Amino acid sequence: MDESLPSQPNPSRRGQGRDNDILVPRTEIEVGSEDEGNPPRAAGSGLGSGPAPLTALFTPPVSALGPLFRHRFKRIYECRIDFDLDINNRATMRVLGGYYKSRRLIRIYARDREQGLRPVEELFDTFLHEMAHHLEYTEPFSFSARSCGRVPGRMHSRLFWKILGELKYRWARLQRQQRGQIPSPEGGGL
Ligand SMILES: [Zn+2]
Predict the structure, then answer these.
(1) Nearby residues of 104 by Cβ (< 8 Å), 6 or more positions away
(2) 60-178: which CATH topology?
(3) Tens digit of pLDDT for each residue in 46-77?
(4) Using CB atoms within 10 A as the burial measure, which of 2, 101, 115, 138 is most buried?
(5) Which residues surround ligand 1, an ion (CB under 5 A)?
(6) Phi, psi of 142, rounded to the nearest 5 degrees
(7) What integer is the mean pLDDT of 97-125?
(8) How far away, in angstroms, is 186 Cα from ligand 1 center?
(9) How many A from CA of 49 to the centre of ligand 1?
């Protein structure tokens, strides 16, 4: 029950988003987009702004996204248990990605059926989301899981949000360091 491969275009009768493959049928998309009428995570929503200004930036080919995301992630967290990453070219309407627990597989859908290639930073945002699932399952105690367990019937546990928050914080901090806005921890412990 934990895996139903999204093998054909889905008639999107149910709320969809990430994780159509894990644990429970999807009804929930993402905290913060609870309005029924909203599309789940419009492009660029991860950045808190519209998608427009980023389009001028360099866009790597889809084949480079997997290595790029892995490289980025290594700089913010060292996974104890490896994972597979599939940047999938199939165009989807609403599904952004999923985590396949039993295979430790992260799948990211790179293309929107109408808009084409999704912005890289949005894809990375989805990647971080799925990575939080991976860590939630493979090393829950890395994030002090006290009373953060799954609640039956809920897609995202408190532990999940805690992990995702930590990952996003680290990524944002790293970017500020790279821009020179805050000092890098040179010779620091981490
Ligand atoms: Zn999720």
Answers:
(1) 81, 82, 83, 84, 134, 138
(2) Zincin-like (3.30.2010)
(3) 444 444 455 556 778 899 999 999 999 999 99
(4) 101
(5) 18-19
(6) -65, -20
(7) 96
(8) 34
(9) 21
